[in-house]
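Researcher: Good morning. I'm working through a list of sequences from a screen, and I'd like to move beyond sequence-only analysis. For each chain I'm collecting a predicted structure so we can compare shapes side by side. This is the next one on the list. No need for commentary yet; just the structure.
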Amino acid sequence: MAVDVGFEPVASRMTVQDGVYQQLRHALMIGRFDPAQTLTIASLAEAFGTSNMPVREALRRLAAENALEIAANGSACVPPVTLARLDDLCQARVAVEGLAAELGAPRLSAADIAALEQIVAEQQDIGRNDSIYDLISKNQQFHFIIYRASGSDVLFQLIETLWLRFGPYMRLLSHHVAPSMKAGVMEPSGRHRAIIIALKDRDFARARAEVEADIRATQETLRGICPDVP
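Model: Good morning. Structure tokens for this chain:
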């Protein structure tokens, strides 16, 4: 089955492996693939306009990050969603992202906060009119501005890995919330406004608490729709 999630052709031979890996990684992170979906090397190579080799290498790298599971025939499978794994991932996210937010908040510049405000404004428009995946991508941008400001490469790498493994749950969430977003009955930016207010007040403990609350709110929504299987 052909893969159609907006991949761009990767033309340069010098960057082809990284190009395939980065685009596929981002697509997984924002929930472009269904839980338990099979991704074949041939279909991905066709989508990227490349040979099989860079796709095979990208899948291997993503499997090493626990973002995919590789079958004996070389195809890859998006991990299934389970309630236990959801709770485990969210527990780790609260701990790691909360710390990154507390460390990053005092180091955010006025330009950084202005960028956060701009993202929230864009989320309002996207939530009503455009792709839910664009909205999820903006959500990632918002959080990562704060986390990068922590200055901790270790924390940021852990966060990226957690978001990558959380991708199948974002797919589940996107299907659930898209109708409410379009109808205007759900806030497209989550708790982002409250985070910005805390940052402007320079109440960094509250900023951390709001980031953690944002994660827990997503967890609670997903707990109502995630299959309760072993």
